[in-house]
Amino acid sequence: MIMNEICKPDAALARLILPQKPHPGVFYVPSQFVLPLTHHEKHYAFHLLTKQLVEAELPRAARAGDGFDPLIEAMFLVPEDRDECAYYGSVSKMMRLFGQKNGVPSYVILPTLACNARCVYCYEEGRKQTKMTPETVERTIRYILETRAEGTITLKWFGGEPLLCPDIIDRVSDALREAGVPFRSSVISNGSLITPAIIEKMTACWNVRHVQISMDGAEPDYIARKHYYADADQYHFVMDALSRLSEAGIHVSLRCNVDDGNWDGIPKFMDDLKEHVAHKDNVSVYFSPLMDVRASDGDLDFWKKVVAARPLIEAAGFRSQPFGAPSLKFKANRCMADGGCSVIEPDGSLYSCEHCPPNGRFGDIFHGVTDEARKAEFCRSDRIREKCRKCPFLPECTGFASCPWTDVHCRESHELIALDFLKRLIDQKANVEEPDGDGSVC
What we know:
CATH architecture of the largest domain: Alpha-Beta Barrel
Strand content: 15-25%
Number of strands: 18
CATH superfamily of the largest domain: Aldolase class I
């Protein structure tokens, strides 16, 4: 057979894993991690572990020499008795060791839990709205200097609303620069405090490369859901901020949190964005179902609406950032918790994940790691949920049992999103790039 390669496997993974040698007498079946699809009357297969995309129709079973050896070598076909979950675990462990660094590579810093909005879905509701004291700020700087990995570290400013505390971001950024520590930053914000002066700080001092801003639909829905303390036209102010950030060269991910209550207003919201955001080049938009939707029996039906709405984003002139689409790179660390991140709360407490206080607390910036067992247990990569062991999307997901995020129909929604993404990718490759002599286009 001829295997037309659309996307090559992940380069780092390919350096560690040799091609699978076909053995006579062995019975081969499609890998658990292969997602087959048909598009424009052609058959394709995407390997969710190796990230290779090929044009080929997989047999139900084959032996070496039957004409499917290229698919065996590329692990689209594997021995029928192979424990794929265990194999994935060994590959993931190797990749972790391959990319492991001493020290902490990234920090999520919450300068405050206070916010100028009262989002109806806020998962921090009821927590005390504390702010870092000057002492805590200085100890945070010292903690970063003492624990950081070599090379460029990343800071993510979160909250609450982190832009209520630009002085804290100033102080930490200045201290790292004075110490000669290379760093880059991102900010998660509601966008209502992003003035031209703040953008100047982002570019000149904070080394901000990316900002995530949440907006929740058309103006009436936005006002009702954000519920700002101040009575002002935040809706159009935030749209102006999107434009100014884009013009300044900062990439913006616009997250629109959705459920049945605001979904009907999405077309109007996209029309408003199209009209009001002048500079769209660096702005990506995605729809994110709220956790109550994802944890309900109707989650799959809602995901279908989200996938079908992607053309609205593109018609408005923005880049579509498909939420939950498969990566084309192998990720040994699927989230901040198992990637060695330290989350620093306003009181100096340390967590593995910004979504998991108080259960995930493993120490503080004053005393360091005081509960090593909890830190290790929280993100044990070898403790995979039983329901995930046979899932083809295991390499795309956080399989360890401590993760609080659950979708009722997670496998079905993953497949829905992946198929849409891959079909668009195939069309893009066909339209943008001509195949070279071996049929490869990426």
